[in-house]
Design a protein that fits this description.
The complex is a heterodimer of chains A (323) and B (338).
Chain A: H1 3-6, H2 18-28, H3 34-42, H4 48-58, H5 60-82, H6 115-151, H7 153-167, H8 171-182, H9 186-213, H10 216-224, H11 228-264, H12 276-283, H13 291-319
Chain B: E1 7-18, E2 28-40, E3 45-49, H1 56-63, E4 71-76, E5 79-80, H2 86-92, E6 96-99, H3 113-123, H4 129-141, H5 158-170, E7 176-180, H6 188-205, E8 208-213, H7 216-222, E9 225-230, E10 233-239, H8 240-245, H9 250-257, H10 298-302, E11 308-311, E12 314-316, E13 334-335
Parallel strand pairs in B: 2-13, 3-8, 3-9, 6-7, 7-8
Antiparallel strand pairs in B: 1-2, 1-4, 4-5, 9-10, 10-12, 11-12
Classes of the chains: A mainly alpha (323), B alpha/beta (338).
Chain lengths: 323, 338
């Protein structure tokens, strides 16, 4: 065979066989980005998600925010066991005690209930009402968006035009309207927020799916004889999940603010249950007499929301997503 | 049994509507592939050559039925692909595999090499250790060491990625392999390795091949027959030796003249092809090549020349050559086994 002769380029002159080819190509691969080399040093092959996680760990601020959120989540879960006092029964003689009062480190509210206890218990409901709708919307909206983006045509029209209807209302107004229509209560607040968050997630998932669908590996999967569902499960879903997760993470902060807002307006949980929005509402009359205590639930909402946004930024950079 | 060729493509047509008119109405149609016919005999390779945008890749996708044709037929081993659908079509896809051009977007970044290659077997219901064994065999056939099975695409070079693509196609033991510019995205030195590998595997796996490329050197090296495409039509086909020694169509000649060749004396090169490919939205009347042809005649604007055989293994669509009284019309090249 005259192959090596005819195709004998200077570099490949001695090659022609595949064993040498590998050596040469491996040599060429050295110029990869630095994090690839760093992984090569460990000698561990790295999965897509493994790499993303390692890149996330580089972002100190995001890691700190994530740790903070995990601590708050752990405290919230453990609230019934670690809280120093009762969340619903107060000492009427000791109302609106300032921060630093012995026995009540963060003071007491307008009914003499321990603020630290109330904040710990409140975190449970506030986090629940903020996170659950976003997670559920991520799955439901992600699935709808993938179907719309992958199948195009009629499914796309039906799903996307339905979502457009929800866009006719400002998000917060839609949440208030739905919560008011469904009636007060934690479950209804979560449902209202879920309906609010599904349409934007669907839009993002649809856009990303369309971007993935034109890649040649989708066509290769089709050519191999895979069914549409196999293609979605093994090739589309994983590539859409990252960007959708990043987008959904940007909603956590807003969702917590919305959840607290619904409670503040009396559309969430009912008193005397501890919830940050509700606490803010009941303490708002004390803003002149004891501003530090009155501001505590608001500060908690603020810090949690900021922490979520920091984590979200870190995720976006780690997954290298452009939305 | 030389009766049925493995692949028999007849009068294949594909049009793409161009939207963008008022209210998304079709503004016109691009006739991407028009009346393309060819056959490939078992064990032989047809090289399909042409400029970017001439319809080569569309032809490949039509042959694999990744796109639905607007006309014509594709018969694989005597079976008309248009009659198949659903699971019957998916089952037949084992026999028809493709290697894509882009080594980057053709591999799912989230799957390691073992899963990428094994996916094609799992799609056809194969499970367990047999899959792992088949994957290991094919990876060693394409020259990837054992530990590459655990790697992810971002850890591979362009040449290695194309080896994975080749492995992914070959693991199904296809009978026809369509290679859509498999090396054009690679460095010249890596191209040589992948092409040599391709030749070795073609023999080892007994492949019949449709090899698409814009690189005439590559096609000459690999093919038994060559078909030249221009604006969605085949303008010339011949055995590979003939097309390189005696090109007939002015377009083929221009393409060959544009091939860099260190052996050719300086100053003796014919002028390069002037102008760009005309818009396929509004192709020239008559012969589509007339706007760039150095030998253009009045008849070229009026009558589209038909593919006419000049010898039994060479046909051309050009008014410069006589129309044989016996066999005017579209005669598909029969790529006989070599």
């Amino acid at each position: 065979m005259d192959a090596p002769e005819r195709w004998g380029m200077p570099l490949a002159g001695a090659a022609g066989g595949s064993a040498d080819g590998i050596a040469l190509e491996a040599g060429l691969a050295v110029g990869a980005p630095e994090w690839v080399e760093a992984e090569g040093a460990e000698g561990q092959p790295s999965s897509y998600w493994g790499r993303c996680w390692r890149r996330f760990l580089v972002d100190r601020l995001a890691v700190a925010a994530l740790v903070g959120l995990l601590v708050v989540a752990a405290l919230a879960v453990l609230a019934p066991w670690i809280a120093p006092a009762s969340a619903t029964d107060g000492d009427v003689a000791l109302r609106l005690a300032p921060i630093g009062t012995p026995g009540h480190i963060l003071g007491t509210d307008e009914q003499g209930r321990d603020m630290l206890t109330r904040l710990l218990h409140g975190a449970r409901l506030t986090l629940l009402a903020g996170i659950v709708p976003v997670l559920a919307a991520g799955f439901i909206g992600g699935a709808l968006g993938i179907i719309a983006g992958h199948f195009r045509g009629l499914p796309n029209t039906i799903i996307m035009r339905t979502m457009d209807v929800f866009y006719a209302f400002p998000a917060i107004l839609l949440a208030i309207g739905l919560a008011a229509a469904l009636g007060p209560g934690l479950r209804n607040a979560i449902i209202a927020l879920l309906v609010v968050w599904i349409p934007p997630v669907v839009r993002v998932a649809e856009t990303i799916t369309r971007r993935v669908a034109v890649q040649e590996f989708i066509e290769a999967a089709q050519a191999s004889g895979a069914t549409p569902w196999q293609i979605i499960r093994y090739h589309v879903a994983g590539n859409v999940a990252g960007p959708v997760f990043v987008y959904a993470s940007t909603l956590f902060g807003v969702s917590i603010v919305f959840a607290a807002g619904l409670s503040f307006l009396g559309l969430g949980v009912a008193p005397p249950t501890a919830e940050w929005g509700l606490m803010l509402a009941s303490l708002k009359d004390a803003i002149y007499t004891n501003p530090a205590v009155a501001a505590l639930p608001g500060a908690a909402i603020f810090f949690i929301s900021v922490a979520f946004n920091l984590v979200s930024d870190g995720l976006r950079d780690a997954l290298d997503v452009r939305l | 049994m030389a009766a049925t060729p493995l692949l028999d493509v007849q009068d294949l047509r594909k049009e793409f509507p161009v939207r963008g008119g008022w209210l998304g109405r079709a503004r016109g149609t691009v006739r991407a592939v028009e009346n393309v016919s060819f056959r490939i005999e078992r064990g032989s390779t047809l090289g399909l050559v042409g400029e970017s945008g001439c319809g080569k890749s569309t032809t490949a996708r039509l042959v694999l039925r990744l796109l639905e044709p607007d006309g014509g037929s594709v018969r694989f081993d005597g079976v008309d692909l248009a009659t198949l659908s659903g699971s019957a079509l998916r089952a037949l896809r084992r026999d028809l595999q493709i290697v894509f051009q882009d080594p980057y977007s053709s591999l799912n970044p989230q799957m390691c090499v073992r899963d990428l290659v094994g996916f094609n077997l799992r799609v056809h219901g194969e499970r367990g250790p047999a899959v792992d064994a088949a994957v290991a065999t094919v990876l060693s056939d394409v020259g990837l060491a054992r530990d590459y099975a655990e790697r992810y695409p971002h850890e591979l070079s362009g040449g290695q990625r194309q080896r994975v693509n080749l492995a992914r196609a070959l693991v199904l033991r296809p009978r026809l392999l369509v290679a859509d510019e498999p090396v054009s995205a690679l460095d010249k030195s890596v191209q040589a390795q992948v092409l040599n590998l391709f030749v070795d595997l073609r023999a080892q796996y007994g492949l019949t091949t449709l090899f698409i490329s814009h690189d005439l050197n590559v096609v000459e090296y690999l093919s038994d027959w060559v078909a030249v495409m221009y604006l969605g039509q085949i303008v010339e086909w011949a055995r590979v030796e003939r097309i390189y020694s005696q090109p007939l169509h002015p377009y083929t000649r221009a393409l060959l003249a544009a091939v860099p060749d260190v052996d050719r004396p300086r100053g003796r090169r014919p002028p390069p092809l002037a102008g760009d490919l005309p818009s396929p939205l509004d192709p020239p009347s008559g012969c589509r090549f007339r706007t760039r042809c150095p030998h253009v005649m009045p008849v070229c604007a009026e009558v589209a020349p038909a593919l006419t055989p000049q010898t039994p293994d060479h046909a051309v669509a050009c008014h410069l050559y006589p129309v044989a009284a016996s066999a005017a019309g579209s005669v598909p090249p029969v790529a006989a086994g070599s």
